[in-house]
Amino acid sequence: MTDPEALKRDAAAKALTFVEDGMRLGLGTGSTAKHFVDLLAERVQAGLKVVGVPTSEVTRAQAERLGVPLTTLDETPELDITIDGADEIDPALNLIKGGGGALLREKIVAAASGRMIVIADASKRVEALGRFPLPIEVNAFGLGATERAIAKVLEACGCPAPLTLRRKADGHVFVTDGGHMILDAACIRIPDPVQLGARLHSVPGVVEHGLFIGLASCAIIASPGGAEVVG
Ligand code: 5RP
Asked: How far apart are CA 146 and CA 133, in angstroms?
């Protein structure tokens, strides 16, 4: 059986072949993106000149520790490529992201990038989004009312789902880098991700959701047979 970490690293290594000297990069979050930052740092140590915008404080700390030069979207509002993982990837390259809780910064950084390259092992490919619980980032104020409004939207969009307030392993509520909370919606199957994404944005209190529609340019999918570029 192939080691899942080896597959993630294969996808990350293939993504590195898209990186050229002088590029401005969005640096994703999660275990697959972590491999990419590790490999990128090796190239930087060998002389590659790039600058990165991290999508989380965890990625920032990793990149700083490894000597990858960083910038911000205030200093560098347009990026060439973002390389990031995903929790689910459908045939149209729509994604569910946010399993690591970084969806807000991940979406802002991806939207500021000319291209978003998704890196993943083959287990992330699905026919329809929704089996992975959809992360919805919400403001702490009015949580109960926001939760009820989200539940109505999910029902109206054909995917009624229990909502779970995300907690850390120690039982404390998970708080995002932006100071918000996350409700995970166990939809099972999302019939129309475009409609659901738009309707979630109309709920006051919803800061962002983990549906990434039309943002990915391609996906690098690693399986034991090799890393394949899709899209
Ligand atoms: C973090 C994310 C991650 O990219 C996603 O959860 C995939 O992570 P991993 O590579 O560890 O499977 O969206 O918010």
From this structure: 18
